[in-house]
Amino acid sequence: MPPARDRLPVRRAGSAPSPDTVLIRRTLAEIEPVADKATSYFYALLFIRHPDLRSLFPVAMDTQRDRLFKALLTAAEHADDTATLTEYLSHLGRGHRKYGTLPEHYPAVGECLIAALTRFASDTWSEATEAAWVRVYTTVSQIMIDAAAEDEQSSPAWWQAEVVGHELRTRDIAVVTVRPEEPYPFLAGQYTSLETPWWPRIWRNYSFSSAPRSDGLLTFHVKAVPAGWVSNALVHHARPGDVLRLGPPAGSMIVDHTTDNGLLCLGGGTGIAPIKALVEDVAEHGRRRPVEVFYGARHDDDLYDIDTMLGLQRSHPWLSVRPVVSDGPTRRLSGQLTHIVREYGPWPAYDAYLSGPPGMIRSGVDTLVGIGIPSHRIRHDGIDELTTSSTDRG
Ligand SMILES: NC(=O)C1=CN([C@@H]2O[C@H](COP(=O)(O)OP(=O)(O)OC[C@H]3O[C@@H](n4cnc5c(N)ncnc54)[C@H](O)[C@@H]3O)[C@@H](O)[C@H]2O)C=CC1
User: 101 in ligand 1 pocket by Cβ < 6 Å?
Assistant: First the structure.
């Protein structure tokens, strides 16, 4: 049988929604105001009917609840855009390997999902709606299962990595270096998911702060944020010798080496981490391309990586680093990162890279589009990846 993605009718965003999509969106619109209740009911049912699945999930399920509904909404939103849907679900399927998800778990989840929808979307539920959900869920799960099976041929489900360096840069920011047990291939600008021994099965995303190194070590910049369990553990408890688990690399904020365009980089707070990796990548590639970095922080003291960035600027004549402070007195550039960028330029032959808080990325994209950089030349990680509480990166 061909893989599930080849059995999807090829549709593109923009055409009229398919009959199944119309029914699915109707259900989701009815569920949305009671999404919390419906998701809690779904998990209660799943764990009562299939208690063996409980151990795949974190002890505290609060963030998990948002994630399921967000995934459903994303799938429904792109239901008629075959390419985007397949890419999203394949990524999700590969990412589920680290949780220990097996093909036989999918029917159990599907059956409880439909039971929860039947109960909480009773006004719009019908035989036709149920049939649409069964069809779509079958396709969705098959794409995820196929992607996981394909990935299994070439990569482990997760990597164990020992902490070999831990440097506290400010009261709440640490630079953490780990040594993976097996080689960990990734590209500069990408991120990974990370699980600590203190919070089993809670995974959070962190960008690599260096390009791949010959010694195989990986480094992350972590800011302890209020209620950020994983980030607090990494900043305040992790020590050399502790063993973490890493998921596969993800993200497309990578350098396009097929062009000579300059790079305009906006890094806010710990968002400077992947920008530093991009600079190293350009340096290693050996082609002289202008790289202009605007490094934003709220206060002077928050520019925890400024010495490294200025050191790189001294070594590389094609690199310019401009620190920008938004909230406190400073002798550096003062103001919002995005406003300052507008005062420089123009940026006709530049590709833009943005990394930082979701608000900064949103306003950064608006500003850059406003000053004429086409959106296909602006790269950043998915706002969803940043905004779901699954990401207490910092
Ligand atoms: N790949 C990525 O996009 C990465 C994103 N991050 C994210 O970066 C953030 C770092 O947090 P902090 O260091 O506490 O940052 P922060 O809150 O201290 O802000 C850093 C900079 O962004 C600016 N900024 C914040 N909100 C803004 C808004 N709404 N509009 C315009 N500018 C804004 C600030 O003025 C400051 O210059 C976290 O949310 C983390 O998840 C971290 C690493 C990688």
Answer: no
Consecutive H or E run containing 178: strand 173-180
262-387: CATH topology is: Rossmann fold (3.40.50)
d(CA 224, CA 35) in angstroms, rounded, equals 29
Atom of ligand 1 nearest to the CA of 327: 35
Q: For residue 214, what are the CA distances in angstroms to 161, 166, 187?
A: 16, 20, 13
ipTM topping 0.90: yes
CATH 2.40.30.10 in the chain, residue ranges: 159-246
Contact partners, residue 30, CB within 8 Å, separation at least 6: 120, 121, 123, 124
Identity at 359, one-letter amino acid code: G
Q: For the domain bounded by 4-152, which CATH number is listed?
A: 1.10.490.10
> How does pLDDT run across 174-227, given as a tens digit for each residue?
999 999 999 999 999 999 999 999 999 999 999 999 999 999 999 999 999 988
Taking the whole predicted model, whether its pTM rises above 0.80 is answered as: yes
Is any ligand 1 atom within 6 A of the Cβ of residue 267? no
Architecture of domain 159-246 in this structure: Beta Barrel (2.40)
CA of 22 to the centre of ligand 1 (A): 37
CATH 1.10.490.10 in the chain, residues?
4-152
Residues 131-162 pLDDT 10s? 999 999 999 999 999 999 999 999 999 999 99
